[in-house]
């Protein structure tokens, strides 16, 4: 599919453009095939954004996963396996959230 | 004694910047260490290369640049605040597709971790331009 | 480790200083520092419930504050007199915020090496 407009770092210019197909296409760019485990985290991220009006830094993402998904999934290793490289940034990108504050 | 400074006031609040620069000079003259000044919020605008203060008023930017030149003080503008205030280095100008880099010489963009690091290593941390306690 | 107290003194949406202070607080927490936050003066308005800043194109600082425990930042305090002055009750605040009278605030400041005022 044709991707909606992205910024230089690959984040959606307009978060209103996000849907599940867009997420899947962005994931292909990252070399990730989205499975249930990925979707669970992406949906959690969208809930985080709706609740806290912000994209989480890694620390908050790990703790939120632990709270909402249980101790097995609330670890940085688990998130690193799903979203290699920089999990907070990659998962925010796929979930259609703004980039986590680059001050952190 | 080791100092760290956080500057929040815009350069138009020239008295705040003069006071901060004077404090830095006095501390360094007294033999204290002052390795880094961190600018955040509107304070980052002092790192704008494109502001033109009246010719008969001292420039806050030039005051800071002299401090960096003469004493090796590192001047860091919070990258998150800076881009919101139009202060872009070449990388950020390219990233956000803006027409020009506007960061003045002597300043560097950096993350809040550099503020955390500076105050963690300091005996005294001072804020200029925030709300008084 | 140096204990740092961040003083939040500004109303939430007048400028961007309130947001800059909260971002700094989250950064200190994200870097595992010993950090506390005190809301005082008009800064207590950052804690007001049901903020609807989308109408002015801003994001809710109260919601950002609600995420503080996810950064393990729970040493969060509010000035009792400022709350009174701005018509806020303890029930309006996030559950992790502790209300302090002026004497307790002086004690809080004494427990910290650094004070950064936003």
Automatic annotation (TrEMBL), chain A:
<keyword id="KW-0808">Transferase</keyword>
<dbReference type="GO" id="GO:0002143">
    <property type="term" value="P:tRNA wobble position uridine thiolation"/>
</dbReference>
<dbReference type="InterPro" id="IPR043163">
    <property type="entry name" value="DsrC-like_N"/>
</dbReference>
<dbReference type="GO" id="GO:0016740">
    <property type="term" value="F:transferase activity"/>
</dbReference>
<protein>
    <recommendedName>
        <fullName>Sulfurtransferase</fullName>
        <ecNumber>2.8.1.-</ecNumber>
    </recommendedName>
</protein>
<keyword id="KW-0963">Cytoplasm</keyword>
<dbReference type="InterPro" id="IPR007453">
    <property type="entry name" value="DsrC/TusE"/>
</dbReference>
<comment type="similarity">
    <text>Belongs to the dsrC/tusE family.</text>
</comment>
<dbReference type="InterPro" id="IPR042072">
    <property type="entry name" value="DsrC-like_C"/>
</dbReference>
<feature type="active site" description="Cysteine persulfide intermediate">
    <location>
        <position position="103"/>
    </location>
</feature>
<comment type="function">
    <text>Part of a sulfur-relay system.</text>
</comment>
<dbReference type="InterPro" id="IPR025526">
    <property type="entry name" value="DsrC-like_dom_sf"/>
</dbReference>
<dbReference type="Pfam" id="PF04358">
    <property type="entry name" value="DsrC"/>
</dbReference>
<dbReference type="GO" id="GO:0005737">
    <property type="term" value="C:cytoplasm"/>
</dbReference>
<dbReference type="GO" id="GO:0097163">
    <property type="term" value="F:sulfur carrier activity"/>
</dbReference>
From TrEMBL, chain B:
<dbReference type="Pfam" id="PF02635">
    <property type="entry name" value="DsrE"/>
</dbReference>
<keyword id="KW-0808">Transferase</keyword>
<dbReference type="GO" id="GO:1990228">
    <property type="term" value="C:sulfurtransferase complex"/>
</dbReference>
<dbReference type="InterPro" id="IPR003787">
    <property type="entry name" value="Sulphur_relay_DsrE/F-like"/>
</dbReference>
<dbReference type="GO" id="GO:0097163">
    <property type="term" value="F:sulfur carrier activity"/>
</dbReference>
<dbReference type="InterPro" id="IPR027396">
    <property type="entry name" value="DsrEFH-like"/>
</dbReference>
<dbReference type="GO" id="GO:0016783">
    <property type="term" value="F:sulfurtransferase activity"/>
</dbReference>
<protein>
    <submittedName>
        <fullName>Uncharacterized protein</fullName>
    </submittedName>
</protein>
<keyword id="KW-0963">Cytoplasm</keyword>
<dbReference type="GO" id="GO:0002143">
    <property type="term" value="P:tRNA wobble position uridine thiolation"/>
</dbReference>
<comment type="similarity">
    <text>Belongs to the DsrE/TusD family.</text>
</comment>
<dbReference type="InterPro" id="IPR017463">
    <property type="entry name" value="Sulphur_relay_TusD/DsrE"/>
</dbReference>
TrEMBL record, chain C:
<dbReference type="InterPro" id="IPR027396">
    <property type="entry name" value="DsrEFH-like"/>
</dbReference>
<protein>
    <submittedName>
        <fullName>tRNA 5-methylaminomethyl-2-thiouridine synthase TusC</fullName>
    </submittedName>
</protein>
<dbReference type="InterPro" id="IPR017462">
    <property type="entry name" value="Sulphur_relay_TusC/DsrF"/>
</dbReference>
<comment type="similarity">
    <text>Belongs to the DsrF/TusC family.</text>
</comment>
<dbReference type="Pfam" id="PF02635">
    <property type="entry name" value="DsrE"/>
</dbReference>
<dbReference type="InterPro" id="IPR003787">
    <property type="entry name" value="Sulphur_relay_DsrE/F-like"/>
</dbReference>
């Amino acid at each position: 599919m044709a991707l909606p407009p992205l910024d230089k770092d690959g984040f959606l210019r307009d978060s209103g453009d996000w849907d599940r197909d867009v997420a899947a296409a962005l994931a292909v760019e990252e070399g990730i095939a989205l499975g249930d485990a990925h979707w669970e985290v992406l949906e959690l991220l969208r809930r985080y954004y709706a609740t806290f009006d912000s994209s989480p830094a890694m620390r908050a993402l790990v703790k939120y996963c632990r709270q909402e998904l249980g101790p097995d999934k609330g670890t940085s290793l688990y998130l690193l396996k799903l979203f290699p490289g920089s999990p907070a940034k990659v998962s925010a990108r796929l979930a259609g959230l703004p980039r986590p504050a680059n001050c952190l | 004694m080791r100092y760290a400074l956080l500057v929040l006031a815009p350069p138009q609040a020239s008295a705040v910047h003069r006071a901060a620069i004077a404090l830095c000079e006095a501390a360094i003259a007294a033999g204290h260490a002052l390795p880094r000044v961190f600018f955040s919020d509107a304070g980052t605008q002092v790192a704008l290369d494109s502001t033109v203060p009246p010719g008969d008023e001292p420039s806050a930017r030039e005051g800071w640049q002299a401090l960096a030149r003469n004493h090796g003080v590192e001047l860091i503008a919070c990258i998150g605040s800076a881009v919101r205030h139009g202060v872009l280095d070449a990388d950020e100008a390219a990233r956000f597709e803006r027409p020009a880099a506007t960061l003045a010489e002597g300043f560097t963009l950096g993350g809040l971790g550099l503020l955390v690091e500076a105050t963690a290593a300091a005996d005294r941390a001072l804020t200029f331009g925030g709300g008084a306690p | 480790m140096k204990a740092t107290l961040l003083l939040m003194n500004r109303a939430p949406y007048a400028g961007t200083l309130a947001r800059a202070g909260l971002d700094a607080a989250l950064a200190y927490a994200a870097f595992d520092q010993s950090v506390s936050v005190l809301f005082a003066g008009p800064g207590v308005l950052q804690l007001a419930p049901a903020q609807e800043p989308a109408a002015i194109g801003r994001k809710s600082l109260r919601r950002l504050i609600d995420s503080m425990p996810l950064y393990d930042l729970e040493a969060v305090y509010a000035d009792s007199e400022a709350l009174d002055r701005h018509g806020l009750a303890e029930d309006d605040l996030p559950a992790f915020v502790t209300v302090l009278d002026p004497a307790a605030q002086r004690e809080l400041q004494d427990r910290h090496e650094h004070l950064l005022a936003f």
